[in-house]
Write a structure and sequence with these properties.
Layout (H helix, E strand, L loop, with lengths): L1 E7 L6 E7 L9 E4 L3 E7 L3 H12 L4 H10 L7 E7 L4 E5 L8 E4 L3 E6 L5 H12 L5 H14 L9 E7 L7 E5 L5 H20 L14 H21 L1
Antiparallel strand pairs: 1-2, 1-8, 2-9, 3-4, 4-5, 5-6, 7-8, 9-10
Helix pairs in contact: 1-2, 3-4, 4-5, 5-6
């Protein structure tokens, strides 16, 4: 019922997941990410414990491949599940149960994986992977969006579309980007709009929130506004010279 991308960005080391489906609130069920640990997408007949238990295993040092083997072998419903993941070492693994609704399958590449079920055909994940691989010049969030749009253009979820989500973690414990469209006639377009809104101010503001290096963050409002304005101007100059 879903297709998704799991990635660890080669330049930044950030973990991310992007997902789209013809079902309600996919962002509440599919993506599981822990900073410095890994990322897991659990889909088809979703088993949330693949995410929770899987992250526990990755924290304990299991590889993505071993984690998937452990969680699926313990699940009597595994034939109806699909899961793909990356571990802290940037190693990817995927599993598609033989009872998943066709078309279903996955692709594993060096820096990302794509998996889907109940799709129009294999061309959905192939187009998604092709565009994701070819757009390394873009920031990770925009790469995700471009790739999912390509998959949608190739047929996407064969039932239609309803929800989408994007989550990226940088070096902090909390997400760098965490946006969801739970119910919309064109969820990927709406997700792209939200991502653009976030780039306008929020991602500048986030630089000065509490962090590992500065646990209090910046709480003086005037100073905060000055820093945000400086960050926005610097980005404009960088974009103009690119």
């Amino acid at each position: 019922m879903t297709w998704s991308i799991v990635s660890r960005d080669k330049k930044t080391g950030h973990f991310g997941i992007a997902v789209s489906t013809c079902a309600f609130a996919v962002g509440a069920r599919v993506p599981f990410i822990a900073t410095g640990v890994g990322a897991i997408a659990s889909q088809a007949f979703v088993n949330p414990f693949y995410g929770y238990r899987g992250l526990e295993l990755l924290r304990a040092g299991a590889s993505a491949e071993d984690m998937i083997r452990i969680v699926t072998s313990a699940d009597q419903g595994r034939s109806q599940r699909q899961v793909h993941a990356v571990d802290r070492n940037g190693l990817f693994a995927a599993y598609t149960g033989d009872g998943c609704v066709p078309w279903c399958g996955h692709l594993v590449r060096d820096t990302f994986s794509v998996a889907g079920n109940m799709l129009a055909g294999p061309e959905v994940i192939e187009a998604t992977a092709e565009v994701f691989a070819a757009s390394q010049h873009l920031p990770l969030a925009q790469r995700f969006l471009a790739a999912l749009k390509a998959g949608e253009a190739a047929g996407g979820d064969k039932r239609g579309k309803q929800s989408a989500a994007l989550q990226i973690h940088d070096d902090e414990e909390y997400p760098y980007i965490d946006i969801r469209v739970d119910d919309h006639p064109d969820p990927l377009t709406e997700l792209a709009r939200l991502e653009e809104v976030g780039r306008g101010r929020y991602l500048h503001y986030r630089k000065f929130m509490p962090s590992r290096h500065n646990p209090a963050g910046i709480t003086d409002r005037d100073e905060l506004e000055r820093r945000i304005a400086e960050s926005m101007v610097a980005e404009e100059k960088e974009n103009a010279s690119a």
